[in-house]
Amino acid sequence: MSQSSEAEGAERLNALISCARTLFPKPIATCVVPCHPSTSVDAEYALEAEAVEGACESRRLQYLAGRRAAREAFRQLDGPCGPLLQDASGAVGWPDGWTGSITHTKDWCVAATAHTTDCLRLGIDLEETQRMNEPIARRVLLPTELDFASTSSETFLPLAALFFSAKEALYKAVTPLVKQRLGFHDVRLMVEKTSDGLHLRAELLPSDVEGRRVVSRLVGRGGFCGPFCLAAFHLPGSRPSQQ
Ligand SMILES: CC(C)(COP(=O)(O)OP(=O)(O)OC[C@H]1O[C@@H](n2cnc3c(N)ncnc32)[C@H](O)[C@@H]1OP(=O)(O)O)[C@@H](O)C(=O)NCCC(=O)NCCS
Prior knowledge:
The protein has helices spanning 3-21, 46-51, 57-76, 134-140, 143-149, 156-174, 209-216; strands spanning 29-34, 98-104, 108-115, 119-128, 187-194, 197-204, 219-225, 228-236. The protein is an alpha+beta fold. It has two domains: 3-124, CATH 3.90.470; 127-229, CATH 3.90.470. The strands form two sheets. Strands 4-8-7-6-5 form a five-stranded antiparallel β-sheet, sandwiched between helices. Strands 1-3-2 form a three-stranded antiparallel β-sheet. A hairpin with a 2-residue loop joins strand 5 and strand 6 (197-204). It is globular. Coenzyme A (COA) binds at residues 62-63, 66, 86, 89-92, 102-104, 125, 167-168, 170-172, 175, 182-184, 186-187.
C-alpha cells in the first residue's frame, strides 16, 4: 500500500470511529476495523473461521472482521472474549447478558456492543451512499420519507440511503422481538436534524400492539461520513444512559 493510500485509510478509519461514537450513549461501545486481506485467525477463534470456510474471500474477511470489531468493542466494556457464532436467523448469538450488532461494507466493518443492563437490543448499519439510486429509493421509502428526502435534489440520494440504512439497523435491533417479518414499508421513520446530529424515531405501521410498543421505545441516530452513512437504533436497558 502506498503512503498516501495508507494515510487516506487512516483518515477514513478515524472519521468512521468518530461517527460511530455519535450513534449511541456512553455505555454502548463501538469499534471500526478494516476488512483487511491479511486477517489471520487465532486458534481460539477457529470455530469462526470454520463457519465461513467455503465462503468467498470477501465474505470471509467481512465475517472475521466483524468478530474482531465486536470483541474489541467488548474489550472496552470488560466484556466476554469468546468466539461469536451465528444463530439460525443469521444474527450473532451474543453471550448471555450482552448484546451487539455488526455491519460491513466491502472494506469496513463496524460493531457495537453493550451489557443488557444498559441496552436490551441494538442494531447498526453502514452503507455506501452512492449505491442508492432513485428506483431503489422509491421502492424502499414511504411517501413521507420520500418527501423528507426530496427537500433538496443534491441530498436526495444520501438521505434515501440513510433511510434505507436506518431500516436495516432497526430490523437488526428488533428481530426477533417483533414477531412478524418486517418489510421496508412496515416501519415509518422520522428524522430530526438538531445541533448534535440526526435523531431517528420509528413507528411500526401494522397493528401488532406489542411490536408497536417495542419500536416506539427505540432510540435512533444517523450520520454521514464521507461516502458512507451510518444508522443505529437501540432499546434502552434499565440503567440510565450518559450522553
Ligand atoms: C439481515 C440484514 C438486515 C443485514 O443487513 P445488510 O445491510 O445486508 O448487511 P450488514 O453488513 O449491514 O449486516 C450483516 C450482519 O447483520 C447481522 N445479521 C444478519 N441477520 C440478522 C438478523 N436477523 N438480526 C440481526 N442481525 C442480523 C449479522 O451479524 C451480519 O454479519 P455477519 O453475517 O458477518 O455476522 C439484511 O440482509 C436484510 O435481510 N434486510 C431485509 C429486512 C429489512 O431490512 N427490512 C426492513 C425492515 S424496516
